[in-house]
Amino acid sequence: MSFKLFALAGVATAALIAPGHAQTAAAPTGQGARPAPVATLVQAVDIPYQQFTLTNGLRVIVHTDRKAPVVAVSVWYDVGSKHEPKGRTGFAHLFEHLMFNGSENAPGDFFAPLKQVGATDFNGTTSFDRTNYFETVPAAALERALFLESDRMGHLTGAITQGVLDEQRGVVQNEKRQGDNQPYGLVQYKLFGGLFPADTPYGHTPIGSMADLDRASLADVKDWFRSHYGPNNAVLVLAGDVDAATAKPLVEKYFGDIKAGPKSLLPTVTVPTLAAPVNEVMKDRVAAVMISKNWAVPGMLDADAAPLYVGGTVLGGLASSRLDNALVRKEKLAVNVSAGYSDMAQIGMFTIRAIVRPGVDPAVVSKRLDEILADFLKTGPTADEIQRVQTQAVAGRIRGYESVGGFGGKAVALAGGALYANDPGHYKTELAAIAAQTPASVKAAATRWLTRPAYTLTVVDGERDKYEEAVVPPAVAVKPAAETPVKGTRAGGIPAVGTLTGLTFPAVERARLSNGIELVYARRGAVPMTQAVLSFDAGYAADVADKLGTQQLTLSVMDEGTRTLDGIALAEARERLGAWIGTSTSLDLTTLSMSVPSANLTPAVVLFADIARNPAFAEEEVGRVRNQQLAGIQQELTSPQGLGNRVIGKLINGDTPYGKAMGGGDPKAVAALTRADLVAFQQAWLRPDKAKIFVVSDRPLAEVRAVLDRGFGDWKAQGPAGVKSFPTTRTPVTPKIVLVDRPDSPQSLILAGQRTGLKGSDDMLVFNTANDALGGSFLSRINMDLREEKHWSYGAGGRFQTGAFDAPYGITAGVQADKTGPSITALQQDVTHFVTTKPMTQTEFGLAIDGGIRVLPGSFETSGAVLGAMQQNDLFKRPDDYYATITRRYGALTLPQLNTAIARVIDVKKFTWVVVGDAKTVKPQLDSLGLPVEVVSAASVAGLPVVPVTPLAAKAK
Fold first, then answer.
1. Residue closest to 552 by CA, chosen among 643, 639, 673, 635
2. Type and span of the H or E element at 510
3. What are phi and psi of 535, to 5 degrees?
4. Complete edge-to-edge strand list for the sheet that includes strand 234-240
5. What are the angstrom distances between the C-alpha of 592 and each of 227, 357, 467?
6. Which of 835, 817, 851, 860 is nearest to 951 (CA)?
7. Sequential DSSP letters for 528-570
8. 8-state DSSP, 501
9. Using CA atoms, how far apart are residues 372 and 375, in angstroms rounded to an integer?
10. What is the sign, positive or negative, of the torsion defined by CA atoms of 648, 650, 653, 658?
11. Distances from the Cα of 176 to the Cαs of 151, 172, 205, 468, 537, in angstroms?
12. What DSSP character marks residue 822?
């Protein structure tokens, strides 16, 4: 479960890591090929639908898509945080959680009956404007999904008990702690409080306040449900392997008898204008100063929504944006910049943001932001800038609409349009409005709204203000009373599942380019897109041992220009094609990936090959991007996950090449890297004799091969190839607890790891299926214990972290700070019981097997999922038809086999633990666990000399 906060996307850790780009004159896309016109791309965006309304007011929209035997079920309620009165902030989001805890005729966790049928993409979210619930199920399980959704719509209140309320209140408060615990995690409250008066609908965020969550009573939440969750206040979308003729009688059957309830009243909202500019400063434990300038603007249905979106993207949303060009590339005042329009139903926010380069005066950056905006308002965007934004926007919709459901598929487009605009096809209106923008229209809208006073927030490094914690009520001795079991209120019970259609994994074909590079190809025609991955046998394991971070810097600078195109010309060319090209690194592989509308495949491959084969490694760019990487490393050292991952990886894998996976690398080594280091790494590892190309496309293999052969077929390796060397024997690990001191953390991050002796080419299906019940799913023992039973965590789990040469077992849990020690004890008990006295049960076995088989069609609905599976099969030396035959493998597994296998490789006494939290609060809890505790500072984690920490005594309460 999650809540959606539009305006803050990109503030988190990654903001400091991605290199910026700049702007140059237009460059050709290569070989004389012209990009497909925007109008041609727009024609590919079409989601036909039928709709009907029940007598109780439930609006139903059906879209038929037969590419996979799955149906997305999406229910959107017209209730969000904007509907919450004073004193009840966070109620919509709290209720989202409550609706996952069972209903009168489906008691227990809502996820259990969905997992049984192999549901994918099941979740719920809360925004300012709505609450939604969604799942993608096999078509034969549609009736069950409709029963479950209708039962929590019409038959819920009898299942909401005080125990359920207390449990989910604790979970939500830990979700809030987890978000607040991140660098810049408290910014959202300042922004919305600064722009919108507190007593207005958008004056608080969906997560709510700890105090209001504490005050929520059982009567309060039941009244909230009765007031907002009736069928006449909802939209139901079914998208996938279903049609209206099939859907209508089923929807009538399950939803038709639910009585209509009150309709949410649309609150009165006006766009506020500040009387004068407001400048505020807040302190947080951050690595770099952040400056954020913000304006309240109209919402998504306003005529100015499209020009504000286009203007924001030109200003700071493209790789070649105005802000990137000036502040990141040329003047080098910032390590990251962004600008954009965030649309809500009745209001919007326009934000310009900069992460100041360490050592630069923030006042200088703030002044330059104002000057660049003023110039934009004076001159407006160019026609070419607008065309690039339009192409990127349409290409993004095409990619997103390959999925029928989830967080951004076709069901989302239809439901959002129906709820907000009374038009399921509103996505077409939005695209048409974007496509119609001109320099004059964008300039006019920007001038209308961005010449008003701004709310500016500057975040500087320093001790946070006292954190608003939940109030723990005093213990009262009461005789426990069993809560009355819920009695069924509908006849028939949960429907059985029909005959399920198995997975049809696309046929995988192999070919070679003229120089021998192997091409691994599958055809998928659901959307007119081509996705390609140029995969090198490198990965973190190939990084330079005494210069960790060389690989990341090499990849980042490769994207900053070739011998014929500088970085901005390269970015602009990609944008004109609607192409996405990026790099990534795993333990074993280094990849250069591309996604592009197939109409632009030929010119996109020209760029793709140019980046791979001809990086310029310009000295100026090496220096600039190196500084960005160093800033990113400093940001890692303020992030709980960044700190924890660096420590646990070194402890478990420090004696193998996998131990080189150290985030952005060693700051001392990165600071000393030269152009020659990057060229040497590229020539040793990113070369044709270490490469394979994986492609999923709607275009035939012969065409794809011919295009790739023109780009890569004459590529030849230069010099000796790099070699990875893994030890045949391992240095023993002594179990202990390493506590990384991160002061003022309201939550602790717990990581644990153990070597297993396994590797990726082993039959990991056995171990992963067994782990489904221990830590591999929402219903796993680890998560249900820490989250649902104890409500100390927002989420916890464990998994085998599989590489080609190693597969250690790891656990991750974010827990409230005062429960850190007890949480480790609980985890130790959960794992110990699972591999000894309380192994996987027959029920858990059946759930894992049935869920594993039935989830397959939904898991490979998209081209990206197929592409990922093809790469994994190749890496772990599995046959290309592995997933086409996996059902038989599942069917051959036995419960004793799974229990024996996982007990053989997991031993909690061999676990090494890492805790990232406030040492003065956490260390006393760890001292009694029977393991040595080593407390270190964040500076130690960066590879600097170890600085032991003596925790200060906790203040008396």
1. 673
2. strand 508-512
3. -110, 125
4. 2-3, 120-126, 131-138, 70-77, 234-240, 59-64, 50-53
5. 51, 28, 43
6. 817
7. SEEEEEEEEE-SGGGS-TTSTTHHHHHHHHHTTBBSSSBHHHH
8. P
9. 5
10. positive
11. 28, 6, 11, 11, 40
12. H
- Positive/negative CA dihedral, 419, 423, 425, 431: negative
Q: What is the 3-state secondary structure (H, E, C) of 31-93?
A: CCCCCCCHHHHHCCCCCCCEEEECCCCCEEEEEECCCCCEEEEEEEECCCHHHCCCCCCCHHH
Alpha helices of 814-910 — where are they, by DSSP H? 820-835, 842-854, 856-859, 863-875, 886-892, 895-905
The identity of residue 464, as a single letter, is R
Q: Which two tokens stand for residue 309?
A: 């979106």
Burial annotation 642-668 (CB, 10 A radius, 16+ → b, else e): bbbbbbbbbbbbebbbbbbbbbbbbbe
Mean pLDDT in order along the chain per 10 residues (957 residues): 35 30 35 75 91 98 95 96 92 89 89 90 94 95 96 93 89 90 93 93 92 89 92 97 98 97 94 97 95 98 98 96 96 96 96 96 98 98 96 92 93 97 96 96 98 98 80 49 60 85 93 98 95 98 97 97 94 95 97 96 97 97 96 94 95 94 94 98 98 98 98 96 94 95 94 96 97 96 95 96 97 96 98 98 96 93 96 97 94 98 98 97 96 92 55 41
Say what the pLDDT of residue 485 is.
Answer: 54
**C-alpha triplet 742, 9, 238: angle, nearest 5°:** 125
Half-sphere exposure of 956 (CA within 13 A, CB side): 0
Sequence-distant (≥ 6) Cβ neighbours of residue 153 within 8 angstroms: 75, 229, 230, 231, 234, 255, 258
Q: Which DSSP symbol is given to 324?
A: I
Q: How far, in Å, CA of 49 to CA of 62, rounded?
A: 5
Report how far residue 344's alpha carbon sits from residue 303's, in angstroms, rounded to the nearest whole number. 14
| Residues found in the chain | 957
Calculate the CA dihedral of residues 28, 382, 45, 316 and round it to 10 degrees: 100
Q: Which residues contact residue 103 at a Cβ distance below 8 angstroms, ignoring those fewer than 6 apart?
A: 110, 148, 151, 152, 155, 156, 159
CA distances from 388 to 279, 321, 369, 569, 597 (A): 34, 11, 23, 12, 14
* Residues 922, 344: Cα–Cα separation, whole Å: 40
In the DSSP assignment, the letter for residue 360 is S
The tokens describing 208, both together, are 């709510």
Q: How far apart are CA 717 and CA 536, in angstroms?
A: 13
Residue type for 159, please?
A: A
C-alpha closest to that of 739 among 571, 599, 936? 936
Angstrom distance (rounded) from CA 96 to CA 786: 19
Q: Give phi and psi for 797, each to the nearest 5.
A: -170, 175
**Structure tokens, 42:** 């727009």
Q: Which residues are bridge partners to 125 per DSSP? A: 2, 132
Q: Which residues contact 477 (CB under 8 A, 6 or more apart)?
A: none
Contact 589, 540 (CB under 8 A): no
Interatomic CA distance for residues 388 and 579, integer angstroms: 10
Pairing of strands 348-356, 747-754: unpaired
At 4 the pLDDT is: 34
**Residues paired with residue 750 on neighbouring β-strands, in sequence order:** 813, 915
pLDDT at 36 (0 to 100): 84
The side-by-side arrangement of strands in the sheet containing 348-356 is: 278-284, 455-461, 290-297, 348-356, 334-343
Q: Which strand (E) or helix (H) includes residue 800?
A: strand 793-800
The DSSP H or E segment spanning 356 is strand 348-356
CA–CA gap between residue 494 and residue 104 (Å, rounded)? 11
Whole-model pTM: value is 0.91
Strand partners, 458: 281, 291
